[in-house]
Amino acid sequence: MKKILLFIPVLSLMNFSVVNFDKQPYFLFTGKGDKTNYDNLLAEAKKADIVLFGELHDNPICHWLQRELTEDLYAEKKNNLVLGAEMFEADDQIALNEYLAGKTSEKTMKDEVKLWNNFSTDYKPLLDIAKANKLKFVAANIPRRYANMVYSRGEKALDSIDVEAKKWIAPYPIKYDSTLKCYKDIWENAGGHGGQNLPKSQAYKDATMAHFILKNWSKGKVFIHYNGAYHSNNHQGIEWYLKQQNPGLKIMVISSAEQKDNSKLEEKAIDSGDFIICTPSTLTKTYK
Q: Which of 146, 164, 190, 218 has the smallest C-beta neighbourhood within 10 Å, fewest atoms?
């Protein structure tokens, strides 16, 4: 009888350990929802012309994997690697270049460049890789004030800006397809308020990022671009604009999803990218 009583708590401990062992901070899936691994992701990234790394902005796993992938791509591609990001606006390129070249201090760069509030923890490590290895880092996004002009007054408002400022925006008027899911969802979620100006302001961001990616990419290079997942999900957004200009590009999309149970990809995330990073919704955020 004593043996049986001793066995029960041991069995309980074994079950407890198995439950905890199964909890993982992230799983990687293919676009079809099959589990895969980082080695497969890296192998495909090495073969791509452009990697669109779609992050969840406050997700620490996304930012960690961005850094790991960038360092591993650099080990293979060396100076044939180009970095770029949504988080830096095109009119800050000169100030960014001066910092990367060691001409200005970090303090000066922080004073001059419009930085996101999670810059120090999430994006500075990527800049550090570029700075240490003398890589180009492209400030790819449209200046926010011009995207806001499109939202509030329509794209014709851009006619009023300075000629020099137009260099920081994709050539316009841009091609725009309101039936694409990425823009249709924005319009529907807003209840149609403001007509197409809201989704079109998003399209101007996507088109501008695509414009500066192509301007700084050439055959034989890999361009890794960091952006919110919604800018490249379902092979739309930035990728759609890239393909309008160069249909032959090999583009790899990494998407990101959060789920209560991240061990199996939910249907809504299927085909959102070539690879999908899935993390638990309880994961600690990098900022609030």
A: 164
